[in-house]
Amino acid sequence: MSNSAEDIITLSETIEKKNTRKAADYLSSHKLTFPSLDVGGPLGSCVPADAGEEVETARHKIIDATQKLQDLLLGPRDYLQSFHHNELISMQAVSRFKIASSFPIDEETSFDHVTSVCGLPEPIVRRLLRHAMTKRIFKEPRKGVVAHTATSQLLAEDEQMNDWVAASTDELWQAASQTLNALVKHNWSEEPHETVTIPLQQQPLQQQIQLSCVM
After folding, report:
1. Any long-range contacts for 83-89 (C-beta under 8 Å, 24+ apart)?
2. What's this model's pTM, rounded to 2 decimal places?
3. Residue percentage of the chain with pLDDT more than 70
């Protein structure tokens, strides 16, 4: 069992010296935009598909090492408690009600404006958007002011991406939460027709009420 300062130091060096510098040098030498969470930043990977295996490998090593370093520094208790049961609620709301499209990318707005456009109660909008902001979807540059980030920009401009998030949260998330119940109910059957029924109150909200969010 490894238990020394070398574990986190090695990971830190893997991130900074060995790989981040390699990725940064590539972006600089090719005059490419550096990663940013702000509007106008790259909406996909900052490393283009034709960058070559070395740079793409460096990118993946950065991602893997930063995740492992975070998990080590959290420790088992904080790591397990970092999985939140409500992780996807704000993403579900943003995609379902197309909140990202409720105001222009290059403008700021208020919670009241989003409320008026999307037809949702203002206290709910405020809570949902502030939760989304913890996931880097939207930001609040000043109290009560909502602005876009690169992530909300992507949801506003890319309908397929918004649909992917909607499918993941409205359909797949619901199904995943019932997978174990279905297996237990049907004695661990693998037959695709042996499922469980999700009660009406757990089904997607648009099947119960009709709300729309348009420009």
Report:
1. 86/131, 88/168, 88/169, 88/173, 89/128, 89/131
2. 0.81
3. 89
